[in-house]
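Q: What does the assembly look like in three dimensions?
Context provided by user:
Components: two
Sequences:
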Amino acid sequence: MDAAHSSAAMLVSNYVFPNDLHVHWSMMIVLYPYITGLVDGAFIIAALYYLFDVKSLRPVARFSLLFALAFLAIATLPLLLHLGRPERNFNMLLTPSPSSAMAGFGYIYAVSMGVLVFIVLFVYREDLVELRATSKGWLQLLYRAMTFDSIDLSKDALAFDRKIIRFLVGIGIPITVVLHGYVGFIFGGVKANPTWSTPLMPVIFLFSACVSGISAIILAYIVIRKVKGRSIDPDCIKTCIKTLTLFFIMAFTFEMLEVFSHSYLKSGYHHMVEGLLNGPLASSFWLWQVKICSVIPLFVLGVMGIFKIKDAIYNFTAAIVSAILLLQVLIMRWNVVIGGQLMSKSARGYTEFHPEWFDKEGILAVVIVMAIPFIILFVLSKIFPFWTTDNETNVK
Amino acid sequence: MNLSYRLRLLVVVLSIGVLAGGGFLFKQLLLPDSFGVYGPYRADAIAEAALVPIRHGTNTSCFKCHPYEAKNHKKGRHQTISCEFCHGTYADHVADSKKIGTLPVKKEKEITTLCLRCHNTEIKARKEEVIKTVAMPNHLKDQNVKLTHNCNQCHYVHAPLKYIIRAKQITGLMEAGS
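A: Here is the predicted structure of the complete assembly.
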């Protein structure tokens, strides 16, 4: 502030409206699309197996459902932490207005949570029936509820289960797409912000969501299996990487297409968007998001697709690429959410954002929020075994 | 296949239906009474908002106690500008017709900062005819004035052209406006 006021020249060149100095949607709002994106991508992997019969994805199909469930369980947490009055979140759901899009998330979230829980219950029904037989007391009551109080594992019943799973996954795809497309739409719908206000926003968010979710499944699968000393299915990793490559090409193309259409249309606030990408975001957008975390993985994925590589090296590269792409999507969310708010409506100045450690929406809070789904996943693993029994061979 | 499994699932589906329907009834119970009277908001909120103390005054309220500034301000080019725009909020200065605090008076470089809020070529929404826009430091160069000068060394802030016009009258240059 002092620097801005010290000379008249500075004042003319970087004038920020007082209400634009503070970045209001900070790191929790970065996490919100990131988490729903992870859910979305993980669900795509499950859908490919359960609905589109991609058999090679069998080893990760059940795991990706639980992964999606664990992250969906905390999807609203960053929003609640961000709200000054979190207890008021219900008011929004009680009194929705068709002209306000914000309440929509509550309904979309509730429906997708319900569908995902039922998919998990039907997928795990065989295991749950077995667990029910060996459990006692409260736990048995829980298993009775989760198996719909039926121990019927006859051929017909299981065939019926599979039909139900197909149906639920079938309606689950549009629901998860709406869940994350909605998040993109919320940003795209902010007319006052020239970097957000584009119909491409939901599309970009969706594709990068698929990228982050699939990367997360690949990385988690490889890491967990390695740590547990179990085998890694090469076919499964290959299929995942191929799917990831497809979604990443689309995501990256659309991200660049958006920049291109901004710079070609040169509409109203173009000078601000251009200045933003080449000024405050020069490092986090061009260097990190585009050069390091997009061009390099694209090249590596190309090599993985074209050349024959030994399984061990392939898996290692897959894990590294997935980790970079997870970072890419996180940086992309950062650049969209926080980057978009660095422009002042004065159209002649940019504000700054410095993350804090112990803030309500600070770095520590981010770490805690991102750790919770892994704790949930650990608890879930005690009830729902991640891996099918035929895949339990030890690695040498 | 055992019929009872399907029956049980039917019960689950029906329960979800009942829960969802119950949710709508429950929602009606939780809605504030005055919600929706005028639109999708609580009608009582209007009365509550009206109880919020007023913080801003008008120029008339300021002129009651500041007759000298009033005389100049009303005649000058700045007559339409609110006193509070430069000096701050009325409620921080006066309560129940008594002075409770001193409002800041901008000095030196702060004056220039304040002037440039409006007199600035970068403000594209307001063209020459509304606000005399000047670029710093070009304006100072054009007028052959030292770059360190503040706006108020030539302009009287309440009536910006007061001294300029007077000076031109003395030196015989009469082309300036009012």
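Follow-up: The mean pLDDT of chain B is 84.
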